[in-house]
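Give me the fold.
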Amino acid sequence: MMRTMLWVMASTTWVPGVLASPATQQSWPPGEPVKWTCVYDGSVVPGQSVPYWSGGPGPDTTRAVENGVLRIVDRGTQKGALHCYSQGWAVDPDHGAVFEARVKVIANDGRSGVALVGADGKHEVGTTLYPDRITIGRPAKTYAMSTTDDFHVYRLAIRGNDYCIWVDGKLVMDGRGQHTHPAHKGRNVIMFGSISSAARSEALWDSVRYAVLGRKPAPPRIAGAQDVIIYKKEGIYACFPSLMRLEDGTLYTSFGTRVRRSHIDGTGGSARYVSKDNGHTWQPHQGKAPLNPAWRCNDGSLAHARARGWRYVPASRRDEFAKQDITVRHVREGVVAYLQGAYARRSTDGGKTWQTQDIDLPPHRGLMCHNLSETCKMKCGVLLNAAYGELKADKIGRSFILRSEDNGKTWTFGPLAADPEGKVRLNETALVENDRGEVIAMIRSEPPTGGHLFHTISKDRGKTWSTPRRTKIWGYPANLLRLKDGRILCTYGYRRHPQGVRAVLSRDGGHTWDVNRLIVIRDDHFGGGSHLGYPISVELAPGKIFTIYYITLTDGVTHVAGTHWDLPPS
């Protein structure tokens, strides 16, 4: 109780688990009082706290809560032997942030073995707590002290090119003008724990808290939006929903129900849900999955094509694929996955039986697809499916097109889009046909060099594409929908503060986008941006939209949800 009282006297607000509004910075270095944005109090492991922290144990590491204090032990030195926790905190570099930890070091033999790290999207600073000193920055500055004799409170403040650090209320380092180390891959995050594979360490973490000192104003959420939870279950990572509107009006979705927060490891399987009332209520779907209406060809057959995606094999085969310059990733103990190949399926008996064929591809490191946004069946009968990856001749990722002119009997593989300057990796691609018979593509680009959607158009039914250009739409990936009034809707995930789902409209067939009238569908996502998005929209009636996506709130349960909302007037 005494510890709690001491912290309260040093701040205007300290309610464990409470997420407060951002404080407004009055001076620099910032003094008391501080209104804390988020507090972790050590009473549970960070992944179970509210708000939650991402992260967890690597090999040869452990964690346990003992008498209200988190003990992190790291005895490993191999790759991945670290144990840290993080939160995306969406700091504006011009306003900055303050973060504190009450820690007792037991042991640490290397840089970042016991550490606090703050990154604001542009700059990054890390403080390492050794038994006899603390260090900060690169090159490191040092302050001599004993970190093992008792718990100490370490406070860091960052803003622009400035940082300062205090120990137990005493300013020990003034780094104004020295906060210049670039943020790793543009990340905007706070981290604590054992952040180094090579270091071995042990520490007791009593509390961690931070205050965001101001943010730029954000656009308001669209009025009248109504949210619905489709699937949410503690301990399940529900992700990557599809969405189809069947011929009888039923809405159908399938999505992953994973037991790990992984985009590769599908352990846990998937679920299928349907709605008979335009998405207001949802029930588990029994029986076989329905056929996608977009697969029906002009001759009555069914056909579709896609990349094979991750293919799972024993970990003993990892070197086999690495030596062939094929993309391979760790999945879980004893299992790796590699990326190779694409295939097509066709049925002439209404889906009772299917014929499957491999699609001829040039040598490639990897090829992927993402969701139904990548599929386009043109009025003329041409079938298109976007994919992304790298040929072995490529230096950077780009997008491709799988195309059929004969109702899915044969397919060709060709280029769709690559960054003209060869600097930005392009990947997940959404397609739609406009009223002129053109195909519009919106393509995800990767931070830190990317982040904006790229745009390209085909005027010859997907054979060739215009030079891709970067739009002013920041976010990814996209979904494209031609509306009943002729406009095109682009819905996309937004992984900056306030994180959520957004949309923009085009009134000229997808050639230009009204970025001055952003539509904010959700703005309450919390945590890492990778646990958010992949929206798909349908128009239920003229001007009535339902958008599905996955999202995570402060409780840390990633779930599938949807929003009903109305289009602004044409």
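The two ends are 60 Å apart (CA to CA).
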